[in-house]
Design a protein that fits this description.
This is DUF2231 domain-containing protein. It comes from Phytoactinopolyspora halotolerans. Residues 93-216 form the DUF2231 domain. Residues 14-23 have a biased composition (Basic and acidic residues). With 234 residues, this protein is mainly α. The protein has a domain at 62-220. The chain is 70% helix and 0% strand. It has helices spanning 3-23, 38-44, 48-57, 63-76, 80-87, 97-100, 102-117, 123-148, 153-181, 185-212. Helix 7 runs antiparallel to helix 8, helix 7 runs antiparallel to helix 10 and helix 9 packs antiparallel against helix 10 (185-212).
Length: 234
């Protein structure tokens, strides 16, 4: 074979290899040209609840209603002794509000369980649990307002909607107790179920504030360099 023939054969083989490479399947490490990257990728991967919550944080129209209420909340913690007691930092070491939420929510959830599987004989106990939840919701709400008084901007908006949801849930459970007292058990159960749904939505926002936004008071001994500047201390 002459030198010219060898060169021609080599060029033909190279073109054939390139052709097959173009048609081959992409490797596992190859970038997907149709997959969004950068900020677009982060937005595409956000769950719907995350997108909704972030939109709520940016909804400035809420400020028209929450700002006057927030000024009242600040008066609640203006006295240092009240502030320390309601925040829980002086006797618990950190925010008392998350701990107290277990009381009404636990009582109301237990009442729902009795409604669904307890039968007629459990109706008095279920009614008492509803009443216990309504009563313990009062100190729970006060400690929540004290925490909310220390927030600003995005957290304040989410906290306001969180409080509205909890207030609606409290109203539904109070109405449920009233209906049960008048022997309207079926209506009471329906009101309890509605209250549970509303409380769950409000609880999601409360969890967002505590876990994602780090909104919670704490004793100075528990403060770290990663804490947000707005986190109430002491």
């Amino acid at each position: 074979m002459t030198t010219t023939q060898r060169a021609t054969t080599q060029r033909t083989t190279t073109r054939t290899d390139e052709y097959h490479d173009q048609d081959s399947e992409p490797t596992a490490n190859a970038p997907d040209p149709f997959r969004p990257t950068g900020p677009d990728q982060a937005a595409a991967e956000k769950p719907a609840l995350v997108r909704w919550t972030q939109a709520l944080e940016r909804t400035r129209v809420i400020d028209r209603v929450q700002e006057p209420v927030h000024r009242l909340a600040q008066r609640l913690v203006a006295e240092p002794r009240n502030r320390t007691m309601l925040h829980g930092t002086g006797w618990l070491g950190h925010a008392a509000h998350p701990l107290l939420t277990d009381l009404p929510l636990g009582a109301w959830t237990s009442s729902t369980v009795l409604d669904l599987i307890g039968g007629r004989r459990c109706r008095p106990a279920s009614r008492r649990l509803i009443a216990f939840g309504v009563l313990t919701a009062v100190p729970t709400a006060l400690t929540g307002v004290a925490e909310w008084a220390e927030t600003s901007d995005r957290d304040r908006r989410v906290g306001f909607v969180h409080a509205l949801g909890n207030s609606a849930a409290l109203g539904l459970y109070a109405a449920s107790w009233s209906a049960r007292r008048r022997d309207r058990h079926a209506a009471g159960v329906l009101l309890s179920l509605a209250g549970g749904v509303v409380a769950s939505g409000a609880g999601y926002l409360g969890g967002h504030l505590t876990l994602a936004r780090k909104v919670a008071s704490r004793h100075p001994a528990f403060r770290t360099g990663d804490d947000q500047a707005q986190t109430p201390v002491g």
